[in-house]
Structures
1.
Amino acid sequence: MQLKLDGSAVTHCGKVRSVNEDAICDCPQANVWAVADGMGGHAKGEWASSVIAASLAEGPVGDDFEAACHALADRIHAANRTIFAESQSRGEQMGSTVVALHVRDDRFAVIWVGDSRAYLLRDRQLYQLTVDHSRVQDMVEQGLLDPAEAENHAMRNMLSRAVGVMEEVQVDIVADWTVAGDVFLLCSDGLTCLLGNDEIARVLTERRTDGAVATLLDMVLERGAPDNVSIVAIDVGEATQLQAKQTDTNRMESGAPDAGTAP
């Protein structure tokens, strides 16, 4: 069953930086949303993130869920090659994080590289769907650092993986089922470095997508916004009766089986 999706997105330079190196992909027609956080300084980071956003927005990804997930990962790989080639040509390092969401029928996938994050709010509980590709997270996983210390660690902004930095990049994917009432949040670290999970959960619980995005941005700006910030929120709602009937009819006509195991 195709659930009803309602998304809202914003990106802001913040109050300290003069250039916004973040970029967003807002493609509801393909059920694809993404946030990319550029690195490399000024035009280089801005260009790198825009390459990723444009690649993810290239067009439809198809009706097959698993094939669509891999197509989006392939687009990130293609952006990696473009950014890395430009970096080599200039003799300057540039790159970007990315976190993307795809929803098809009642399944979702999150695809990411770096420390931009995806969250799921379900039954008023906030779950982080991504694991940061950062030096600090590597230390946590190796048992060298307590998770409680990670958020404020001096090396928290040092990435262990990013798009465009190396000739090849590993892209992570997690997939699961979604239900009406879910709220997804994609964001750059300009949000999470200033707001805690409890604050984010409260806003997503109390506001609809437009209001939630606006409120979260206002909170970041009120706290000084030292970094660029990008926020995308997607509400999952019940399918209308007509949508449900059309989906059931299409399934009967095609004889298609239920979706299989997520990639």
Note: Helices lie at 42-56, 65-90, 135-141, 147-150, 189-192, 197-206, 209-222, 241-254.
2.
Amino acid sequence: MPCFIHADLDAFYASVEQLDHSEYRGKPVIVGGIPGDRRSVVAAASYEARSFGVHSAMPLAEAVRLCPRGIFLRGRMDRYREKSHEIMGVFGSFSPDVQQLSIDEAFLDISGTEGLFGPPAALAKKLKERIRAETGLTVSVGIAENKYIAKIASGLSKPDGLSVIENGTAEKFMRALPVGKIWGAGPKTQELFKKHSLTTGEDLYRLSEKVLAAIFGDALGLFLYRAVRGEAAAAFNEERGSRSMSAERTFAFDLYDTFAMETALFDICQDLIWRLLDCRWYSRTISVKIRYADFSTESGRKTFENPVRSFNELYERLLDLFRQKYRNGRGVRLLGAGLMNLETQIAHQGELFDGEIPRSEKERHLEETILEINKKFPRAALQRGRSCLKEP
């Protein structure tokens, strides 16, 4: 039987700050900016800050109002990526199939690992112990027969939680779940639940797919119909039949500002390029995914004659594809990007025969050097900055 873990670091950015600064421990820590910063939003809030009503994606000014004595920090992405690299390394020691969703969460396929680590719950306990011992952080874990249910389960008992949904019980679990716990149902959907007196998965289960589509729209209606039957694992599946890698970001609130969207895409590219370089792979095919506020999804892909060889090249190509696909003015709840048909060696065409090493190849050599430095000296945590980019 298939078995998946969803591992989610607890209040990751804020927890790293409390780890590094003992004086912050037990106090409300809010990462994202300092009072007076314009247009800043909360990137992470410690559990002490959450008790004041502060949460991620909240405007910083509102967080200051709710928690005026909080510890406000602008954040240190280099340090967070360093810790993320450590954590993903631990995950990789428990499963050969780790799908990193973002800097602080991943899926692990643990199907067939009982002989090495024991039952899934025993494996999860060992994983949690290793994370705490080796990184000083805590992780909440959900275990289930598909990724979607595991994702929900990991959030049931945060922080430092462990929830197991036994094989064959996914539908029963979803039918008993309060609608507020259905992952992917944002604030607007929750308003519709309230309007139609829908309080549990059982209430949704009793409605036909046609009725759900009439209330929520075709895309979201179908999603909910499948979700309450425990059939939503495909939302997280990698493309089958070829090697690929992907990363995505789900936002607590819908994004309408294109700069914020492009910044999120920039961060996704950081994840992808270091993984690509670390594996020494190449790819000519890129993809982008945009999920809107109404849960409809726009996606696209493009294959190029020459492979992606550098961060700059990847970001330029993905940004161009995003701008082609994005419908201006629509709120965005999720952004994702991927690299398809990965190859270990690839013939370089065209520009390599002009007698001069192309810019992208020079950048790849530079980034490979940065990667090696970061491996030898993790605290260096070198990254490419937006100033290195040329606007498409």
Note: Residues 138 and 160 are 5 Å apart (CA to CA).
3.
Amino acid sequence: MIDFLGLCVQNLIKCIKYIFARQVRFSAIVSQAAAISYDSLSISLIIAFIAAAVIAIQVSKQFLMSGADTYIGGTIAIVMIREIAPGFVALAIGARAGTAISAEIANMQVTSQVDAIKTLKVDPVGYYFTPRILGSVVTVPMVVLIAEVVGVLGGMLVSNATIDLHPARYMNSVWLWLSTRDIYISLLKGAIFGGLIALVCATQGYQTKGGAKEVGNSTTQAAILSTVYLLMADFIINLIFYIAK
């Protein structure tokens, strides 16, 4: 994993150079952004809603029994915005779009399309990686923000249905507990997770050699590696902003 991390850093540096050389096509970024985030929006929102609903079911009755039902909204909002929404959205996008990135680039590698790009004196890392990374960095935070809204509203609906908690009391708790700092950090997480998914999965696909079997193996490995690196990045970000503040 250390060697692979080094490859990811090298590819990221190449992409940064490619960006400053102004060789990135805007249309390619838009196309990749749509394929990565827009096409993953529905599954991400479903996961966010279900996660918030489960949390509401788990905590509502206990909070009501202890007389702390006014804290339900704030609890769900903090959990959703700080951790659940950015984490679950990133995992959903990694499972759907990340594996597709890896499979696409792996197929290009084994069918010699990458070699053809090299003969045109075009850097394949910059050409293939940069639009995907930029598209992810820009649009994954948008999906995270929408998922946070859906999650908070989902928790409100479930709390009202299970313990008849009035929406006004629920939302009042949300506004009291929530801070703009939490939202900013969640958006930062979304940007980092999005870029990490694209970088890791593209790097894994780019390292593929062989035939169709290796493409499948590479796709599976990309899903595993992206999940591991996402969790590691999540831990580091939480350590920096919430523990070491």
Note: The chain has a mean pLDDT of 88.
4.
Amino acid sequence: MNGLTTRLQQELNRIRPATVLIVEPDPYLGRMLSEYLADYTCQIVTNGRDALTSCQQAAPHLLLIDTNLPDMSALALFQQLQPLKLINHMPIFFLGQPDDGREQRMNALEMGVDDYIAKPFDIVELQFRLKNALPRPAQSVDLITGLPGWPAIHQDLQARLNRQDWTLLLIHVAHMAAYQDVYGAVAGQRVRRTIADLWNGVLDEWGELDDLVGVVSAHEFVVITRSPQPNQLLAHFQQQFAAASRRWYSPAELAAAQVQLLDGRRSPLMTPVTAVVSARSGPFATSLEVIDAAETLRQRQHPTTVEKVTPTLQAIFATS
């Protein structure tokens, strides 16, 4: 496993499953819900008082409340959560009784309860409702480029692994660290945003509807495409990158095809270095295996050289 894959594995390890607090007086139903919601970290309490205490100690991502609590009504519990300022930060679902009337359901929804599911309920439907209400990894974005980050890339790629119509492009922007060493962090961020815009434009014009471009590090981008001609996408990007990069350097630097670093040494201009891995390159069991194969291929085809930057900037890029 190479350095990039190791760091992405560590990032996945830090992603914790969403927490669901189940407020259910029936022990059997509480255990059943916990088993069917095994993708989440479930905590079970049997009354409203314990639910309040639990929320005060550590607010869950979602609250599932049975409307037949022994110590208070579900609406009373809902109202007592409001002063804790939790209502706007987590979805709250009611599990209603079979004889709950329409007026009771409407009253709860009007007060702000996110969903009201009457028993007997379809457990698969409940799973989908919770999934749609909880935060998704796909919502994670890189703050500089606005592109999906690694959790979203992982989710998208993992879902495609049993298909044969995908190709992954790994784009490493070589010597970006050196450019940022000379021109500063703000200029480096502008470059990253421009690269994101270029890829979005390429995919809009020549890609497929469900193609994805994302960021895995400060100088590495990933494109997942169903295009039957992924190399043409790369060619369009390379052409546009070459044109855009002429705005990032002085005429003298362009003529010399290098920049002078702050310590007097010289570095080549930025250039995209790519690797292409497809479903035919597999089989792959996980998204990390795909990234590992692409990074290994890139390093073999374009042997990595140590970029000539200051030690401080080297450390920043090593952890980006």
Note: The first strand starts at residue 19 and ends at 23.
